[in-house]
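Exam revision sheet. Question 4 asks you to relate a sequence to its structure. Input first:
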Amino acid sequence: MHPRSLQNGILKARVYDAPSVNRLLDTLPKKEYARLLPKLKTVRLVLGDALYEPGDVIKFVYFPIDSIISLISEVSGTSLLEVGMVGNEGMAGLSVFMGVHFSSTLALVQGSGTAMRMSSAAVRIEANRLGGLHDLLHRYSHSLFTQVSQSSACNRFHLVDARLARWLLMTKDRLGTEEFPLTQEFLSNMLGVRREGVSKAASILQNGKLIRYSRGLITILNRRGLEAKSCPCYRILKAEADAYLN
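Answer key, structure tokens:
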């Protein structure tokens, strides 16, 4: 499935308490951030845009502020599966930091919003400085690797309703929203299940009064209940993301 077919899957979320900074950049020492600032440009990320596709040269990296970028793998040439999610805790285009110039996944804007953009060339220069950004990206590499490996196990072994709960919580944490306009087609691609499976999972969460799902709009009603319903992966991934920034 081509990424453009997902454009109408998730609309711009209704923001209640949207993040105002990228947490990774905000963790940098003030002097280092001030030095990097001229190399950073605030850009608008548009829902459904592919920042890069498999095999593309990565020209820019992105530090989301109130947007989300999905890292997606193509399965069997026809189906898509989200293997990672990048929000205000991280950076899209991490392979540049590791000396790899090409993308191995589709980087798709999942939630519209803003991000700080830096050229890949500038990132490579900064990687050689062995400063705060270098150290943070090393720790973030471990955090993202944990997310990808944990998500792979989650997709294989956990029930769809628990996985949906995890996905909603991770999205809320990064966008600062309670409501997500979503279609079953989009969720089926993110979770790697048929639409019928998404519908059943959403009904389970709705019957438990954890969410409200009507005409493609999901509203989180009970965060604590949703956390209890989620598989353990959510707590593992949240703890990992929080830990590397401290």
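Marking note for examiners. The beta strands are 41-45, 50-52, 60-64, 68-75, 79-86, 106-111, 113-119, 179-181, 211-214, 217-220.
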